[in-house]
Amino acid sequence: MKNIHILHPQNGDIFRLDPQIPYKNQAIAFKVYIDSTIESFSIKLNGNTLCKNTTTFLWQPKLGKYELEVIGNTRTGQKSEKITFTVF
After folding, report:
1. Number of Cβ atoms within 10 Å of the Cβ of 31
2. Tell me: domain 4-87, CATH 2.60.40.10, correct?
3. pLDDT tens column, 7-45
4. In the chain, where are the structural domains located?
């Protein structure tokens, strides 16, 4: 496995907001794997930092296309992984 790996969502995933469920009760869990070589990391959505050093983050979905990126810092530089997903 890589130093950094986005476990959920997967690249290309498509999510649908459910009109039968109250919006405030809908969420997408962002889950990442970080190995011990990563000293610190941040999770970014469309370039905006959502959280730092947290391997699970619940995000309230909004309509659109998104790029999720995890950037980790090691002693030798940065490592990252990106995926894209859509909410409709």
Report:
1. 14
2. yes
3. 999 999 999 999 999 999 999 999 999 999 999 999 999
4. 4-87
